[in-house]
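Please, structure for the following, as tokens.
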Amino acid sequence: MNFRHPIILGSSSPRRKFLLHEAGYNFSVISPDVDESYPEDFPAEKVPELLSQKKARAIHHSDDSLVITADTIVILKTKF
């Protein structure tokens, strides 16, 4: 599927590549090299958003590109 703007997947995740491919989108992949650290007291539920924003800012792209980034965390009881 062609989109009006170039799509850039800012992730090396095989699952995210698979999902976009299966949805029929044409896209390129750029795996940003970012520091994925965050403050120790940072709220766990906000960590994926913070890391996704870091990845998006690290990708050099044209203004008309759609950049897709994501991140996940696993929380077991109160530890992540």
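The chain has a mean pLDDT of 89. Helices lie at 14-22, 47-58.
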